[in-house]
Each structure stands twice: as structure tokens, then as C-alpha cells.
Design goal:
Layout (H helix, E strand, L loop, with lengths): L7 E5 L11 H8 L9 E5 L2 H4 L5 H4 L2 E4 L16 H6 L4 E4 L2 H4 L5 H14 L2 E6 L3 H5 L3 H12 L7 E4 L13 H15 L4 E5 L4 H8 L6 E4 L6 H9 L5
Parallel strand pairs: 1-2, 1-8, 2-3, 3-4, 4-5, 5-6, 6-7, 7-8
Helix pairs in contact: 1-11, 6-8, 8-9, 10-11
Bound molecules: 1,3-dihydroxyacetonephosphate.
The site of 1,3-dihydroxyacetonephosphate has 14 residues, from strand 8.
Length: 242
Amino acid sequence: MAKTLRPLIAANWKMHGDMSWAFKPADFNTLFLTEDRTHLDVLICPPATLLSSMLDPEQTGVLLGGQDCHANAAGAHTGNVSAEMLKDAGASYVIVGHSERRAEGDTDADVNAKAKAAARAGLTPIICVGETEAERDAGKAQKVVAAQIKASVPKLKDYVIAYEPVWAIGTGKTATPEDVDEMHNAIREQVGAKVRLLYGGSVKPANAESLLGLKNVNGALIGGAGLEMDSLAEIAKAAPAK
Ligand code: 13P
């Protein structure tokens, strides 16, 4: 049943990119034509400074998203960006609860409020969860992730979950397909059949097929390999047609 969900291939550019990167969706489009990818969604989440300069998703077939948002729509919150502002700048998605934000202090309650704010603004939140290496070594990975989901995911009609084991992010260490399969099956049981479940953590062209082919993996959240359009396109081509 979950296999009927449309794959989502999402690049998180993190703190990378200048104005010249605003044209990357066009490069992606020449590498993987829109007519050949009607079965999947492709998303780029650039730094907020680039969002409104990025080529129009209607022209490139590459959707745009934010990397984080504040829970409030507006106010005295120096340095923050609201979900409404991201929407206004062209986003249709926003990542919330990335482990790099959680490491800066975001709690499950904060992530929950941000996900609600995303929905309020008409964005689809991509809610990130994932265990640390110590938690995995202690045999607690599933328990930790289940608790994060319980506390970070509000009651929403439309959201995406990204499972990103902290120890696999930017390290080159990818979780094995067996680990990912086990975790995604557990998450599927918890959230039901309609939620897209992305895997993130050192996804690259070489491992994309084995990860994206798993039953309850509906896409990927990609850091390093999403900065270059040729590797992003290769990963997107590995997403099975439904
Ligand atoms: P890498 O693909 O660089 O490991 O980053 C994963 C990630 O954090 C995506 O949000």
C-alpha cells in the first residue's frame, strides 16, 4: 500500500550556495527531463537567501522548500524566518527538526510547533527524526525514533517524515538497507499508510537504488550529493516508478 506513495527526492543544501546556484534547477532539468519524471517529486531546499531567486518550479518541475521556520507567523524574532515568509518566497515544503537544528536546541515541542506553523502557512513539513550512534549501540534506536515521532508530529493531514540517523549524516557512513528497512517498517506501523517516509544520511548515486527500492522508503533527503545536479539526478533516476 505504501508503495503507491509518490517518491520525493529532496536536496537539503544546508549553508551552501550563492546567487549563481539559483539556476541549478534548470541544470537538473536538462539532466532529467520533466516528462521522464512524472512519477516523482523533486525538491531543493536552498538557504532562505536564495529562495526567491531560484528558478520558478512551474518552469523547471523542481519544487522549493525552506530548511527551518519559526513557529510564529511574524514578530520580534531577530534572525528567524516564518513559514509564511518561506511560502511567500516560493516554498511549498519546509524541513523541521533537522538534527543540526536539534543540536542547536530545538526540542520535540519546538519541532511540533514548527510543523504546525508550516501547515498553517500552506507548506508541507518534512519532520526529521533519528537516533545518535550511542543510542543505536545501546539498542535504543527504534525507541528513540518512536518517541521523537510521538512528540514532534502534530495531528496534520499532510506531512513527510525523514529518518536521518545522526551518525550517518555527512559522515559517509550509510545505514545498511537492513537497518533502514527495519526502522522504516516500524515508522510505517506508527504513522500509517499515507505518510511519505524519506531516508537521509550519506545517500549517494552508489547506494540510492538499494535504499529507494525498500518497501517503506518513499524517497530521500540528501545533503552533500544534492549540491551537484548530476549526482542529484542520478539519485532521482534510481527512485522506482510506482
Ligand atoms: P548527507 O547526505 O550529506 O549525509 O546529509 C544528510 C542530511 O542531513 C540531509 O538533510
